[in-house]
Design brief:
With 82 residues, the chain is mainly alpha-helical. It is 68% helix and 5% strand. The protein has a domain of 50 residues.
């Protein structure tokens, strides 16, 4: 039989609330994916014109999208491990 003490039963440890992915990481992910997508589409339009800039836009768009994805998953991993 348990004896009530406040909000918790004696003998049971209170559980901390589960950590969640931060809102800032989600915003960074969405922003980087949006900017990366715009740069990708710009690179395809430059490629149709035969411009040299298409390869640079493709690389920059890929790097920005990878940065956003990395920030999101690092924050997600820290939230799950703590």
């Amino acid at each position: 039989m348990f004896v009530r003490s406040g909000d918790y039963l004696l003998g049971e440890a209170p559980q901390p609330p589960a950590k969640k992915t931060s809102r800032a990481a989600i915003v960074i992910l969405l922003f980087c994916l949006a900017v990366g997508s715009v740069l990708w589409f710009a690179s395809f339009s430059f490629a149709l014109e035969g411009s040299i800039r298409s390869e640079a836009f493709l690389k920059i768009g890929t790097i920005i999208a990878l940065i956003g994805t990395t920030v999101f998953f690092v924050d997600f991993w820290f939230a799950k491990t703590q």
